[in-house]
Amino acid sequence: MSAVPPPDPTDDPLPDLVRGLRGHLPLDRLRAARHLGRLGWLARDALPALRAALADDDPRVREAVAQAVGQMGPGALPAIAGMLAHQDKYVRRHAVWAIGRLGPAARPVLADLCAALRDPDPRTGSGAAQALGNLGAGGADAVPALTEAMRGTNIVLCRLAAKALSQIGPPALAALVAHLQHSDPFVRGEAALALGWMGAPARSAVPLLAAAVRGPRSRDGRPLDYTPPPVRSRAPDDDPDESPTPTHTPAPTASGTPEETCRVHAAQALGRIGPPAAAALDDLWEAAQTGPDAVRRAALHAVKQIQGT
Asked: For the chain, first and last CA: distance in Å?
């Protein structure tokens, strides 16, 4: 049997691609960065050249270089994290997106991601929240930073931070429950939504979720957004005192005021918690009879989920 010939060193594309990164024409540098990105971790020997190319004068080249570094995986994590401090927001965006794809393997850069939550670029901050959520339980140390992010003015970041807290799980439960008492109904609603994503492990939130379903009250005890229940025809043998039996209703999407949306999200959360939320049934029945349409539908749907009907 003939011996296998040694690989031809001229088949290695990296030297030419590294030279391309330093070319005079932006188009040549752009092509080289994109080719290196397609090679992923196989191009790891080009990482020093790529890091230097992050200072390229052409923004298209910088973005392509950032994307190439981000495609190298866990082995390039220090270089990816270093991009979070870059002056180009597109480079920072690629950094958080790349870290987010690594999941729990990105745990060593948790502190960098927490700092990125405060990035002036909204997409970078949102990407950081998603990346922290992808850490799962390993992101427990990020709970204070995510809690603070929920209280900011960026509503997308608020929702993604709440989602991240739900992915972290029990270590974040107390923070989400506390947010059910926030003065801003949008924050309360996002906390309720996140608790619903947690499901049964969020059972300790049932009393506050029930209060959120009830909504703000007038002095006579009625919900401030009270609307009379619809008139329903009744067969002669119906019991007028019997509670209405919930029929199949799809999970609603809230589109009203922030307070109404909060009540919908709270009802949905109780439904997802399931039977452990049985203590909230009275409040759900009341909401199903007196609330705005979206709240009524959400409450009825939650009753079905809790009762298993």
From this structure: 72
Strands (E), the chain: none
In 140-237, where does DSSP find H-type helix? Answer: 143-150, 155-168, 173-179, 185-198, 206-214
Cα 77 from Cα 88, distance rounded (Å): 19
DSSP-assigned letter for residue 217: B
Residues with Cβ within 8 Å of 19's Cβ and at least 6 positions away in sequence, in order, are 32
Domain end call among 43, 71, 102: 102
What was the pLDDT predicted at 248? Answer: 34
How far apart are the C-alpha atoms of 300 and 250, rounded to whole Å? Answer: 9
Per-run averaged pLDDT (10 residues), the chain, 309 residues? 48 91 95 96 96 97 97 96 98 98 97 97 97 96 96 91 96 96 93 95 96 78 48 35 34 67 96 97 95 95 93
| Whole-angstrom distance, CA of residue 177 vs CA of residue 282 | 21
**In which domain, by residue range, is 119 found?**
112-169
Q: Is residue 200 part of a domain?
A: yes
The CATH code of the domain that includes 136 is 1.25.10
Cβ proximity of 274 and 306 under 8 Å: yes
Residue 201 lies in a domain: yes
Taking CA atoms, 91 is separated from 43, 54, 131, 152, 242, in Å, by: 19, 8, 16, 24, 62
Considering the domain architecture, whether residues 223 and 280 belong to the same structural domain is answered as yes
Of 214, 203, 180, whose CA–CA distance to 271 is shortest? 203
Tokens 């019991």, residue located: 239
Distance CA 164, CA 185 (A): 19
Q: Is 44 part of any domain?
A: yes
